[in-house]
């Protein structure tokens, strides 16, 4: 059975089947509600408006995304308005196929294990896995972690590009800089790539809003999916006065309003950097204790990546697409030691798909069963983060004992 699963002739049909199923779910009207609307609505409208002379986001006006995110949004215009969604799905599927092909180009057990895990994670997240910008950065990050050992400079370039699409790959960069032997080559390549992007944006595109994405999240309220919103949703279900769910027409998300919402949003703003700092300190402790660099990098990448979501006031469903990358790295370098967090991440991803798109309306209506699902999902996120911290602590402790002998 293991030999069968290692064959690329089996892996590729599985890859195609997963992507066809997810594409069909996105393209079939009514099956997943408005889950594909970010692509066919927001992305398409942004670039259509820009082409028509309404100003380019991140160039002429502030934008929530980094400037390189424009590239995958512009390409599907070749299909026109009617074909925009189909070209988007073809684009992301081809990029995923590239990353998948590089991953299994050497069909070792660790790489094949990681390949199967990525397919499982995509299927677990459902249509949102392909229907959001995040999949572009995820594919680039997969390519980067595969390239890390042999071509660290290439890993740095890819991670920088991914970060300029969606900020989260900065978590992988930070973990590498703290713990990996290849830190300097990755960092120099990432900084050089960032400098090139900024130079092109400023001097070739006259993009004075190139850094506008940095402050765009600060004014957001407390999104319903955030772990910080969970107690308020239960309180609203219990009919505590003045608590409610509303749709923010500026940021286009459902948020919580009422007593405690603003305070919890402010706490979230501080909690994320504190959580990341704690993970980095434990990573540094492991490095100073001479723990195995690859394992330390994987655990630290998992802790920071999950921390970006678990301690955020947003918590959108597509964020769970990120989690697969550090888990894949961990499966490649630590094998069975990453088994439990890998399963926990898959479980939380399945729950995320149940929440959105399948039963999102029920959750917004404060259905107690769906609030329980949301609570379990958020608890799993925190459990994965805590598990990664414990693993980093153990790496530092074990390495210290070994060095004392």
From TrEMBL:
Query: Is Cell cycle among this UniProt entry's keywords?
Result: no
Q: What is its main location?
A: membrane
Q: Which UniProt key words apply to this protein?
A: Cell membrane, Membrane, Signal, Transferase, Transmembrane, Transmembrane helix
Concerning InterPro entries, the annotation shows:
GT87
As given in the record, the signal peptide range reads 1-23
TM region positions:
82-104, 116-147, 153-179, 186-205, 270-288, 342-359, 379-396
Localization per record: Cell membrane
* Membrane topology recorded in Swiss-Prot or TrEMBL: Multi-pass membrane protein
Q: Which domain of life is it from?
A: Bacteria
Tell me if Oxidoreductase is a UniProt keyword of this record. no
Which Pfam families does the UniProt entry name for this protein? GT87
Q: So what family is this one in?
A: Belongs to the glycosyltransferase 87 family.
Q: What is this protein called?
A: DUF2029 domain-containing protein
The species this protein belongs to is Gryllotalpicola kribbensis
């Amino acid at each position: 059975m293991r030999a069968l699963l290692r064959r690329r002739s089996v892996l590729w049909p599985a890859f195609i089947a997963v992507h066809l199923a997810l594409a069909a779910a996105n393209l079939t009207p009514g099956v997943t509600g408005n889950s594909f609307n970010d692509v066919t609505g927001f992305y398409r409208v942004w670039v259509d408006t820009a082409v028509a002379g309404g100003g380019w986001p991140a160039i002429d006006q502030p934008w929530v995304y980094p400037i390189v995110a424009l590239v995958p949004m512009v390409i599907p215009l070749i299909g026109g308005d009617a074909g925009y969604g189909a070209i988007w799905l073809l684009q992301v599927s081809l990029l995923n196929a590239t990353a998948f092909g590089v991953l299994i180009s050497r069909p070792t057990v660790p790489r094949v294990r990681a390949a199967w895990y990525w397919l499982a994670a995509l299927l677990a997240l459902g249509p949102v896995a392909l229907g959001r910008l995040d999949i572009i950065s995820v594919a680039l990050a997969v390519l980067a972690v595969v390239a890390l050992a042999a071509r660290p400079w290439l890993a740095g370039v890819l991670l920088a590009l991914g970060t300029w699409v969606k900020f989260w790959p900065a978590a992988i960069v930070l973990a590498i800089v703290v713990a990996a032997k290849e830190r300097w080559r990755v960092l120099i390549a990432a900084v050089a790539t960032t400098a090139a992007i900024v130079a092109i944006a400023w001097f070739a595109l006259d993009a004075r809003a190139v850094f506008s994405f940095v402050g765009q999240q600060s004014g957001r309220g407390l999104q319903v999916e955030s772990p910080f919103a969970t107690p308020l949703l239960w309180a609203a279900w219990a009919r505590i006065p003045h608590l409610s769910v509303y749709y923010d027409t500026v940021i286009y998300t459902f948020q919580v309003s009422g007593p405690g919402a603003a305070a919890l949003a402010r706490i979230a703003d501080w909690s994320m950097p504190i959580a990341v700092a704690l993970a980095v300190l434990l990573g540094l402790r492991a490095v100073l204790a001479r723990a195995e660099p690859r394992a330390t990098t994987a655990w630290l990448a998992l802790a920071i990546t999950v921390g970006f979501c678990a301690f955020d006031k947003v918590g959108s469903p597509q964020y769970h697409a990120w989690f697969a990358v550090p888990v894949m790295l961990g499966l490649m370098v630590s094998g069975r030691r990453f088994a439990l967090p890998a399963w926990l991440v898959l479980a939380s991803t399945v729950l995320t798909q149940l929440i959105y798109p399948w039963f999102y309306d029920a959750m917004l209506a404060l259905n107690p069963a769906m609030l329980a699902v949301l609570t379990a999902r958020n608890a799993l996120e925190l459990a994965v983060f805590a598990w990664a911290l414990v693993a980093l602590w153990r790496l530092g402790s074990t390495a210290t004992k070994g060095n004392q002998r």
